[in-house]
Amino acid sequence: MVNKRKTGIMGGTFDPIHVGHLVTAEAVRVEYGLDKVIFIPAANPPHKQELNVTPAIHRYIMTVMATCSNPNFVVSSIELDRSGPSYTVDTVRALNAKYGDKTEFYFITGADAIGELTTWENVSEILNLCYFVAATRPGCNSDLDSVINYFGEKGRDRIFRLTTPELEISATDIRDRVKRGRSIKYIVPENVESYIMKEGLYL
Ligand code: NAP
Q1: What is the pTM of this model?
Q2: Which atom of ligand 1 is nearest to the CA of 10?
Q3: What DSSP string runs through 84-103?
């Protein structure tokens, strides 16, 4: 039997990327023995069609800036390169078609997002193509258990939980702080802070 390498897919809107995301990705990488984590900003998040999300190119650039000092982190523009809603199934299909014979994928994202997994397009196919790691803050009881139970044995085999205290940080709070002129120092990397200020994002 071939021993497959394990690679993380860090999926998120990253509006903006922050220290909570970075600590989470590194914690999952170490805990699950991943060779690397591929950050994939959602260009056109399917569940945010009515919302005012920052243009994908800004979110992509901030993700590259935030991850550039970690040799185990890479960023993919796969969802910016496709048109239409950024369905996760299309992304994991493409990665499996290219690398699936040698690689097992771990899709890392927030537990609240995974709490909605039953509504995602082609979710049973996604569960065949990757594992999920649901990142949650301590003491946070999301709908994760009911989602895991909904999928029965497959849910218990393929969906894991990882607690990260740094997830107290939230992108919503960061946008709000910028709007109110409050500091975002140390909750986003310094170069991301400079980029937000230079581009006048979240004002
Ligand atoms: P969201 O609904 O904005 O986020 C829900 C919660 O998860 C927030 O607290 C968020 O914190 C946190 N979170 C998001 N990404 C995270 C990450 N990588 N690590 C740790 N916490 C994270 O979720 P989203 O960011 O828009 O989407 C998450 C992923 O799910 C994306 O890859 C998206 O494409 C995918 N998704 C796919 C479908 C579909 O295929 N139909 C539907 C929904 C979501 P912050 O706000 O601080 O980031």
Answers
A1: 0.97
A2: 18
A3: S---HHHHHHHHHHHHTTTE
